[in-house]
Design a protein that fits this description.
Elements lengths: L12 H5 L29 H15 L1 H7 L6 H9 L6 H33 L13 H9 L1 H56 L4 H10 L1 H19 L5 H11 L3 H16 L3 H56 L4 H26 L21 H4 L4 H18 L3 H5 L5 H17 L7 H6 L1 H50 L4 H11 L3 H16 L2 H12 L2 H16 L3 H55 L3 E3 L5 E3 L2 H31 L6 H16 L2
Antiparallel strand pairs: 1-2
Helix pairs in contact: 2-3, 3-5, 4-7, 5-7, 7-8, 7-9, 7-12, 7-23, 7-24, 8-9, 9-10, 10-11, 11-12, 12-13, 12-24, 13-25, 17-19, 19-20, 19-24, 19-26, 20-21, 21-22, 22-23, 23-24, 24-25, 25-26
Length: about 700
């Protein structure tokens, strides 16, 4: 792999931002040397030239931006991130904005630090602070005499620097995170994009047309399409030849895999090799590389599942036991444990979900929706509206729509499961209001401590089940429908390809496949067959199928078939290519589930162990010591009151419920890369925890 052809400053910042250097100059701005428009190489100027350059740039761009512009060697990596992340801005402009935001954050932080000192002084906390014993007496007396000044300077400086420095570092390295996400997205989608280009080139489509089709498929191939769109724009807008455009894209892509593919493509273009054979070989190579990369990703998820067991099972148990001992020996109370249960554990699980989501985002199958270019407009024209029967037609359409919805009111929930929240959330609020109004439960801490199980069940568990059960049910129905289509699709394409190779037409082949299948896919294939027979438009029929079912694998398959069928009459080969691509995707998804099934079981078993230990502590430890006196040396008897025991039991029960919800959601994210998939685990674990504490 060759090195990227980039300079330290990532290009001419003036040209990128529209600022063109003047050669003539004015009275206010002296002539700018010609070398400013060229690539600036540090260390090649004399002291006089450097001073003159800095003065001219400072007058033209301001001192802050001029400072960054004269030091490109320090920020060449940032410019590379900005280019690869498609920020459309040069490093000096970006750093100038960042400096402004950091300065504003520093000022706000300083004000916050000053307010903190004022609050501490008014509460008397500062007056109680004394110097340590090892500090000299004269220094301690001086600090005590100027306590307020020292505290103000320290707080204002520390908080201001932390706020400003945090904003600066966060903004400086933010482009690198964007580039990393784009890199992984490109790497995941690239093998399937190469298959798409192979299907197009198989029918004889020349390279420029293939790249145009690839660039236009951003609704299906995401970031890879955006990378190829840069090649097309380089040719169309800047007038470069294809070789130069591919080389420029190669130098700017964040993906090493795409960079290598473009290197190989340049070799083929330079040597005049066979493009179709090249794409066929590349598709097989990158399919294997995708399997290897997914295995590395699964190993990372396996490590995260083990970390989860340690962080949210072993560590909380250790903390619970430690707090119990401290309560016996020093009367610490339940507040530290409450902070851990209600704040630390939920925030920790949320952060863990965010980490898994960030790692899994490039591997997530997007829900593509292909917009057909010949759809009927939703807003009728004025000529249509003026028709005498337009009102009658609209009323008939509205009645038909209403009749369909009343005949199948759950259809919208099956298509979009989160829509259940529009119904269940108001019902849950009404349920809560009815429970409180009827006096069945009181939403106060005292009520939770006096009757933790019943109060929690009425005020928390019942609304949770009311909201989560319908959502989980319809999500599982949609997921299983999608999995069923993905599982049957490769075999259906194989049958269709074999039938087409033996001379059976596409319409008859679709009817043949539909007769050998059942369920939604068979029904939709018959609909596609009728659509082609009546309208004689294969592309629209296939894209309409993808648009209706909204299954990611089917969407890409229909895209390959729709565009590939237009470039070749040898349809069976295009069907074979689409079948192999679909089969590869299905294998990747299946391998992920099989590999992570054991680790998801470990996570669930970890929760059950946590629940068992909590129950043992609750029954074998808290019960016997209720009201008993324990002696600790000369300090006298230490007694745990009944109220403290009830508070601990409430905390134990609530920690189990929080653990159940979090463990279920994380299990779904690990196994299926979808939080909603984990809802069924959360529901089951919550019911288990509730049942265990109900019968204690």
């Amino acid at each position: 792999m060759t090195d990227r052809a980039e300079g330290p400053d990532g290009g001419d910042s003036d040209a990128a931002t529209g600022d063109v250097a003047s050669d003539g100059g004015t009275a206010e701005h002296p002539p700018v040397p010609e070398y400013e428009a060229e690539q600036y190489v540090p260390g090649t100027e004399s002291a006089v030239e450097k001073e003159f350059r800095e003065r001219v740039l400072s007058e033209k761009f301001g001192p802050v931006r001029a400072y960054f512009k004269t030091r490109p060697e320090r920020h060449w990596k940032l410019q590379e991130w900005l280019n690869q992340g498609r920020f459309g801005v040069t490093y000096d402009i970006y750093l100038t904005r960042t400096a402004t935001y950091a300065a504003a954050a520093g000022i706000l932080g300083a004000l916050l630090g000053f307010a903190l000192v004022v609050a501490l002084a008014q509460s008397g906390v500062l007056a109680g602070i004394s110097a340590p014993s090892f500090v000299p007496t004269w220094l301690a007396e001086a600090a005590a005499a100027n306590r307020l000044v020292i505290a103000t300077v320290t707080s204002v400086t520390t908080v201001g620097l932390l706020a400003g420095g945090g904003v600066w570092l966060g903004a400086y390295y933010y482009p690198s995170t964007v580039v990393e996400v784009r890199r992984r997205s490109v790497d995941v989608t690239l093998p399937h994009a190469i298959v798409y280009m192979y299907a197009l080139s198989f029918g004889g489509m020349e390279m420029t047309a293939v790249l145009r089709q690839m660039a236009a498929a951003d609704d299906t191939y995401g970031e890879v399409a955006h990378e190829f769109d840069m090649i097309v724009r380089d040719v169309d807008v800047f007038g470069n030849d294809l070789f130069t455009a591919v080389r420029n894209a190669r130098n700017l892509t964040p993906s090493d895999n795409l960079e290598q593919f473009l290197d190989d493509l340049l070799s083929v273009l330079d040597s005049g090799g066979e493009l179709t054979v090249f794409l066929e070989d590349e598709s097989e190579k990158y399919m294997q590389r995708a399997r290897d990369e997914q295995q590395s990703f699964l190993d990372a998820l396996a490590t995260l599942s083990e970390i989860f067991v340690v962080a949210f099972v072993a560590a909380p148990l250790f903390v619970v036991v430690t707090m119990m001992m401290l309560s016996l020996l020093g009367n610490v109370g339940t507040i530290p444990l409450a902070v851990i249960v209600y704040l630390v554990i939920p925030l920790g699980m949320t952060a863990f979900l965010v980490i898994i989501s960030v790692l899994s985002e490039p591997y997530k199958q997007p829900d593509h929706q292909l917009q057909l270019d010949d759809r009927e407009p939703s807003d009728p024209s004025e000529a249509v509206r003026s028709h005498p029967h337009f009102g009658t037609f609209r009323r008939l359409r509205e009645r038909a729509w209403l009749r369909d919805r009343l005949a199948d009111p759950t259809a919208v929930f099956r298509e979009y499961p989160p829509a259940t929240l529009l119904v269940t959330v108001p019902l849950a609020l009404v349920l809560l209001g009815g429970i409180v109004t009827a006096g069945l439960a009181d939403p106060t801490p005292a009520a939770f401590i006096d009757a933790p199980v019943s109060t929690t069940a009425l005020l928390l568990i019942a609304p949770f089940l009311l909201v989560s059960v319908p959502l989980s049910l319809f999500h599982e129905l949609a997921r299983r429908r999608s999995e069923s289509i993905s599982r049957r699709l490769p075999d259906a394409l194989d049958i269709l390809a074999s039938a087409n190779q033996m001379g059976v037409g596409l319409v008859e082949g679709l009817d043949l496949v539909a007769r050998n299948l059942s369920g939604r896919l068979a029904l939709e294939l018959r609909r596609v067959s009728n659509d082609i027979r009546w309208n004689n438009d294969i592309r629209r029929a296939l894209l309409g199928l993808a648009d209706r079912l909204q299954v990611s694998q089917l969407t890409r398959t229909c895209k390959i078939l729709a565009e590939g069928s237009r470039s070749t009459g040898d349809l069976h080969r295009v069907l074979d290519i689409a079948a192999e691509d679909t089969r590869h995707r299905y294998r990747l998804a299946r391998d992920r589930k099989q590999t992570l099934s054991s680790y998801t079981a470990v996570v669930i078993i970890g929760f059950l162990v946590y629940l068992a230990v909590i129950v043992i502590i609750n029954e074998s430890f808290l019960g016997p010591i209720t009201g008993s006196g324990l002696t600790t040396g000369d300090s006298g008897p230490v007694t745990i009151s009944q109220g403290a025991v009830d508070a601990y039991r409430t905390l134990f029960f609530h920690s189990a419920i929080i653990q159940a919800v979090g463990t279920g959601l994380i299990t779904g994210k690990l196994s299926d890369n979808a939080v909603l998939t984990g809802l069924k685990y959360s529901i089951a674990l919550v019911l288990i925890a509730f049942g265990v504490f109900l019968f204690l």
